[in-house]
């Protein structure tokens, strides 16, 4: 684990889905951003997807199976999203909420 902050356009995000105690959870990460910027991304996703969520280290956890919806929301917000099996490259350039 690294607390290093890297430029927004060099992030490579992974979108995964898992069940915890029988409940669906979507994980997005790794975000190597300032805490304030991570909170802005979380706020945007929670609002757009109408779900709960939290930040755990460099990961954003969202309640429910919202993997595809989160990809679409980020794609609309950011622009360049390239699918690659279970992971995606995303250029995080504009996170205005």
Explain this structure to me?
- By secondary structure, this protein is α+β, with helices and mostly antiparallel strands.
- It has helices spanning 35-49, 67-78; strands at residues 12-20, 23-29, 53-56, 59-63, 81-84, 87-90.
- A 6-stranded antiparallel sheet has the order 3-4-2-1-6-5, covered by helices on one side.
- A hairpin with a 2-residue loop joins strand 3 and strand 4 (59-63).
- The model is unreliable at 80-97 (pLDDT under 50).
Distance between the termini: 28 Å
Structural class call reads: alpha+beta
Low-confidence region ranges = 80-97
Number of helices: 2
Name the average pLDDT.
76
Q: What's the total number of strands?
A: 6
Strand order of the largest sheet: 3-4-2-1-6-5
Helical content (DSSP H or I, runs of 4+): 25-40%
The dominant shape is globular
Strand content: 25-35%
- Cα-atom Rg, whole angstroms? 12 Å
How would you sum up the major sheet?
Answer: 6 strands, antiparallel
In N-to-C order, the SSE pattern is: EEHEEHEE
Notable characteristics:
alpha+beta, 2 helices, disordered C terminus
Q: What topology emerges from the helices and strands here?
A:
Elements: E1 12-20, E2 23-29, H1 35-49, E3 53-56, E4 59-63, H2 67-78, E5 81-84, E6 87-90
Summarize the structure.
With 97 residues, the protein is of the alpha+beta class. The protein has helices at residues 35-49, 67-78, and strands at residues 12-20, 23-29, 53-56, 59-63, 81-84, 87-90.
């Amino acid at each position: 684990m690294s607390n290093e902050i890297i430029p927004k356009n060099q992030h490579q995000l992974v979108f995964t889905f898992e069940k915890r105690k029988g409940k669906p959870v979507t994980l997005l990460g790794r975000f190597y951003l300032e805490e304030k910027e991570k909170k802005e991304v979380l706020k945007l996703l929670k609002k757009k997807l109408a779900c709960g969520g939290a930040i755990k280290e460099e990961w954003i956890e969202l309640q429910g199976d919202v993997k595809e919806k989160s990809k679409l929301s980020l794609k609309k917000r950011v622009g360049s999203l390239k699918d690659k099996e279970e992971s995606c490259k995303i250029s995080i350039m504009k996170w205005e909420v």
